[in-house]
Design a protein that fits this description.
Blueprint lengths: L6 E8 L10 E7 L2 E7 L17 E4 L4 E4 L1 E6 L8 H6 L2 H17 L2 E6 L5 H8 L7 E4 L3 E3 L23 H5 L2 E3 L3 H14 L4 E4 L18 H13 L4 E7 H9 L4 E7 L2 H10 L2 E3 L14 H24 L2 E3 L8 H4 L2 H6 L7 H16 L23 E4 L13 H4 L2 E4 L2 E5 L2
Parallel strand pairs: 1-4, 1-5, 6-7, 7-8, 9-10, 11-12, 12-13, 13-14, 14-15
Antiparallel strand pairs: 1-2, 2-3, 5-16, 16-17, 17-18
């Protein structure tokens, strides 16, 4: 890949991803894909000898606009967000890959320069992006999620049961969407296979779900010994397990097994939230409400969806009460329309916290969670901040997102410049 150009942003107000405020006017120089210097603005001076001594390939006049870190989404399904469930289960694998690559580019153009993908065949897409064959965010892949029989990741149709009646593996397993594993040996094999393929963390389904066919919300999935086996296998590779779980019982069992991150958790109680804080676990909590961003469901799944939505306000209150490490992830599945509203899901968090808290979470705090991958981190370097030496994933934003977070919901108009690793993704400045 070509060397990233030297870029000078002049006269920008910096949101650094850490402090809840904008800086005074500054100049930010990017060299070789990292932030080389941040200095007081010299907009009205010559570029010669300012903001460092290196020659500048590109000068971007910020004109007082906001420069901020690229956004991070900690719960995506790039292979499945932009297509229907029927297409995901029956579509040609090459079509699915092309659709996922197109969705990855759209994700990047919405300002999400990094995602943690929590289930789906994304290893090839990540490889293509990293090699410059496609455009998209940095991907921290989980690969196929690990599910018990009849769990949240079991997409088989009833006529495919018992296992082996139509071949040992189902279509979703062959596609790389799920690993159906029962018992400690199968869980160990499934986790190790995903790590072999390049997973930076492991996703396990440990409780019932909304859109799944077989499992009520109250069902706890896997035994503690099975869950601990997954954790130990991941820890042997220097990384961690995150789990899908909504209920007190499912979350508490996962924490006892050593799980480091909980996805969802809308139905836990106060004692469980306190236990999460005690363990130092992360809580990747989605703004699931009964509103325009709710995934279309019907029948029993609609009842489950309403139950989760009713617990969302209380979940955010518990997270704040106990000072739990909170992360943002959008978790869109099988809905092209909702996937286009990825930034809207982030912005609606102001229902529970300030815009500054939301954007700090979606940048530097999410980056802290990414760092739990340890040696399995595919992108060594500092993410989620505007700081000297950090990776240059940057957004130039019209307006002040700390005062009006709504500006991030129209990136096609309000994000004239997007950088990833110092390379220009978009420049309409």
């Amino acid at each position: 890949m070509d060397q990233a150009p030297s870029i000078l942003f002049r006269d920008v107000r910096v949101f650094d991803g850490v402090q809840p405020r904008l800086s005074a006017a500054q100049d930010v120089r990017v060299e070789a894909g990292v932030i080389a210097s941040i200095t007081a603005s010299t907009r009205h001076e010559s570029t010669e000898g300012t903001a460092g001594s290196s020659p500048t390939d590109i000068v971007i006049d910020g004109a007082g606009r906001t420069l901020m870190p690229g956004l991070i989404d900690m719960h995506t399904h790039l292979s499945f967000a932009g297509i229907s469930q029927v297409t995901a289960l029956t579509g040609n694998v090459y079509f699915l890959a092309i659709a996922a690559a197109a969705g990855a580019e759209q994700t990047l153009l919405r300002g999400f320069t990094t995602v943690r993908d929590l289930g789906g065949p994304v290893f090839g897409i990540k490889q293509a992006i990293d090699l410059g064959l496609a455009r998209g965010p940095r991907i921290f892949p989980s690969g196929a999620f690990i599910s018990q029989t009849g769990g949240h990741g079991d997409f088989r149709l009833p006529f495919e049961v018992p296992r082996g009646s139509h071949g040992r593996l189902s279509h979703s397993e062959l596609l790389g969407a799920a690993v159906i594993a029962d018992g400690v040996p199968e869980v160990l094999r499934g986790v190790r296979e995903q790590l072999m393929l390049g997973a930076s963390q492991v996703k396990v389904m440990s409780g019932g779900g909304v859109t799944s066919a077989y499992d009520p919300l109250d069902v706890t999935q896997y035994t503690e010994s099975e869950m601990r086996a997954a954790v130990e296998a991941a820890e042997n590779w220097g990384t961690y397990v995150t789990v899908h779980a909504y209920t007190t019982r499912a979350v508490q069992q996962a924490l006892r097994a050593g799980v480091r991150c909980i996805e969802h958790g809308q139905l836990i109680d106060d004692d469980t939230a306190a236990l999460m804080a005690e363990h130092g676990a992360w809580w990747c909590l989605q703004p699931f409400l009964d509103d325009e961003d709710a995934t279309p469901t019907q029948g029993a799944n609609r009842v489950k969806q309403l139950h989760v939505a009713a617990g969302t306000d209380a979940a955010f209150e518990l997270a704040r009460k106990h000072g739990i490490n909170l992360a943002f992830g959008s978790d869109v599945l099988f809905s092209p329309g909702l996937w286009r509203r990825q930034t809207h899901r982030l912005a609606k968090l102001v229902r529970w916290m300030s815009a500054a808290e939301v954007l700090i979470m979606a940048t530097s705090r999410n980056a802290e969670l990414l760092a739990l991958s340890g040696p399995r981190n595919p992108y060594p370097g500092r993410l989620g901040v505007v700081a000297e030496g950090a990776l240059a994933d940057l957004l130039l934003v019209d307006g002040d997102p700390l005062a009006n977070i709504g500006v991030i919901t129209t990136p096609e108009q309000t994000m004239p410049v997007i950088l990833k690793a110092g390379a220009i993704v978009k420049n309409e400045s």
